[in-house]
């Protein structure tokens, strides 16, 4: 005999359960966004004590090395060297003071470069994954490091964009740059501009010269690598380029 289809009465409990699950997931997602929104709103007046990235690095270093150095000290926006602000903007995001947090053209160009790199890797049959080139603005980098994990998924990238727009709406550019410069990594266990200036130059981040600031800006894409090669020819040449671009950066 052919199997009998479940009656409408039997299907109703299943639909109710599925509906409750969907509503629960949506409520949890909404609660998470509200949590992020309140955290960012609080940052308008309260300096963040640590970031998600810093906490993950703390755990990683503790497991790998046991005892390790950790350096970070907050400096207010006006105490940070204008040379460093200009150098980081010139190097990392020269449209920072004009865009709304996302540079769509830069993301598109980065996607195209990644596709080309992947194709070249396939043609060489190297088996090595291509180096991923990003198109992130300073605000996007801050959103990622402040509140998100380091995994690379479409869902995490989408959340990064939501947080980026929250940061841009709730904080002004000065505050975004201030939080970024005080928390960004400049080496293993070296976080923020003041720690970096003391680590590499034995001086405060308020006293950095244009060239010193440019050299620090060069390190940001890969600080752990350049920490081991601070006097490399690449760092020196790239710093000269950034020092030249700094003159075009107007601070608010």
From TrEMBL:
Leading EC class: transferase
Q: Which InterPro entries match?
A: Glyco_trans_51, Lysozyme-like_dom_sf, PBP_transglycosylase, Pep_trsgly
Keywords from UniProt, A to Z, are: Cell inner membrane, Cell membrane, Cell shape, Cell wall biogenesis/degradation, Glycosyltransferase, Membrane, Peptidoglycan synthesis, Transferase, Transmembrane, Transmembrane helix
Gene Ontology annotations of biological process type = cell wall organization; peptidoglycan biosynthetic process; regulation of cell shape
GO cellular component annotations of the record: peptidoglycan-based cell wall; plasma membrane
Q: Which residues form the Glycosyl transferase family domain?
A: 71-246
Is Protein biosynthesis a UniProt keyword of this protein?
no
Q: Name one GO molecular function term.
A: pentosyltransferase activity
Give me the reactions it catalyses. [GlcNAc-(1->4)-Mur2Ac(oyl-L-Ala-gamma-D-Glu-L-Lys-D-Ala-D-Ala)](n)-di-trans,octa-cis-undecaprenyl diphosphate + beta-D-GlcNAc-(1->4)-Mur2Ac(oyl-L-Ala-gamma-D-Glu-L-Lys-D-Ala-D-Ala)-di-trans,octa-cis-undecaprenyl diphosphate = [GlcNAc-(1->4)-Mur2Ac(oyl-L-Ala-gamma-D-Glu-L-Lys-D-Ala-D-Ala)](n+1)-di-trans,octa-cis-undecaprenyl diphosphate + di-trans,octa-cis-undecaprenyl diphosphate + H(+)
Q: Annotated pathway, please?
A: Cell wall biogenesis; peptidoglycan biosynthesis
Q: Which domain of life is it from?
A: Bacteria
Identify the EC number(s).
Answer: 2.4.99.28
Compartmental location: Cell inner membrane
Q: How does it sit in the membrane?
A: Single-pass membrane protein
Q: What does this protein do?
A: Peptidoglycan polymerase that catalyzes glycan chain elongation from lipid-linked precursors.
Task: List the HAMAP family.
Answer: PGT_MtgA (MF_00766)
The molecule here is called Biosynthetic peptidoglycan transglycosylase
